[in-house]
Design brief:
By secondary structure, the protein is α/β, with parallel strands linked by helices. The chain is built from ten helices and eleven strands. The longest helix is centred in the N-terminal third of the chain and has 23 residues. It binds guanine.
């Protein structure tokens, strides 16, 4: 039987609904509206699309959002000066610097310059450390989205073997840290595969849950999965497709057609994890406002 296709857009809509309600009661209680500032440096077309999605989501939940478009030639010193100003501005609760940044700017120095309480991406080393020791303040949006999908589709990782493919700082490693915690939403046995793993299939075939976050199109095929497993595809890759008017389509790290014949449930790309990332950014902005006001 083909797999259940998990509808990430629907799950994201329920989270936005919850956040909208909470924003409403926060505003009522404090008189303060949560505010997010997005810094977008340069003209990367994909970044512009992502930032637009964030802006639309903010509007839907009642969060004030402002995108500042900065030139491709912005220096690191200029960007740091803007961040310091936003750090000091009590009316700003969340700051997001869209990645990637132009080559003249160090992403590490930029992330470290953020007030960690306003770091709605959860990328600051302080937040990474708190998550690793099981005391999270601001959790990264995409890994949290994966946990929300699992929890809200009846696929809790508790007691399961989760195989993560990918060790990035924004998905693979934070997921590893979150999934091993002794909490109701996690408590999994975790294996992490990466480019140094000689036979990835040997591990993914032993996973009750497989999370693909390697950034390599169709790396995970159906024959690399255990029948009845749950597959979460975090990848967003451009795949050449002459039949599409753009000349490409978006595809994940999982070969969807073969995987859906083996898995019990699977997330599509697009329409799987992506919408959750944006919804959880809204939740983090609300959390930041709750932590900072009062
Ligand atoms: N670029 C791609 N994904 C992300 C993300 O989650 N946050 C930021 N800031 N930039 C990104």
């Amino acid at each position: 039987m083909p797999a259940e296709i998990i509808d990430g857009r629907q799950i994201a809509a329920s989270i936005r609904k919850e956040v909208r309600q909470e924003v409403k009661s926060f505003v009522k209680k404090t008189g303060v509206t949560p505010r997010l500032v997005v810094l977008l440096v340069g003209d990367d077309p994909a970044s512009h699309v992502y930032v637009r999605q964030k802006s639309l989501a903010a509007e839907k939940v009642g969060i004030l959002e402002e995108t500042r478009n900065l030139s491709d030639a912005t220096t690191e010193a200029e960007l740091l000066r803007i961040i310091h100003e936003l750090n000091r501005d009590a009316s700003v609760h969340g700051i997001l610097v869209q990645m990637p940044l132009p080559a003249q700017i160090s992403p590490t120095r930029v992330i470290e310059s953020l007030d960690y309480r306003k770091d709605v991406d959860g990328f600051h080393p302080h937040n990474v450390g708190l998550a690793a020791i099981g005391s999270p303040l601001m959790e990264p949006c995409t890994p949290t989205g994966v946990l929300e999908i699992l929890a809200r589709t009846g696929n809790a990782p508790d007691g399961k073997h989760v195989v993560i493919v990918g060790r990035s700082n924004i998905v693979g490693k934070p997921l590893m840290n979150m999934l091993v915690q002794k909490t109701a939403r996690a408590n999994a046995t975790v294996t992490v595969c990466h480019t140094g793993t000689s036979d990835i299939g040997e591990y993914t075939r032993r996973g009750d849950i497989v999370i693909a976050a390697a950034g390599r199109a169709e790396l995970i095929k159906g024959d690399m999965l255990r029948p009845g497993s749950v597959v979460i595809d975090v990848g967003v890759n451009r795949v050449d497709d002459p039949s599409d008017e753009r000349g490409y389509r978006l595809g994940g790290d999982v070969e969807f057609e073969s995987a859906k014949e083996v898995a019990r449930a699977i997330t599509p790309v697009p329409g799987g994890v992506g919408p959750l990332t944006v919804a959880l950014l809204m939740r983090n902005t609300l959390t930041a406002a709750q932590n900072l006001v009062g």
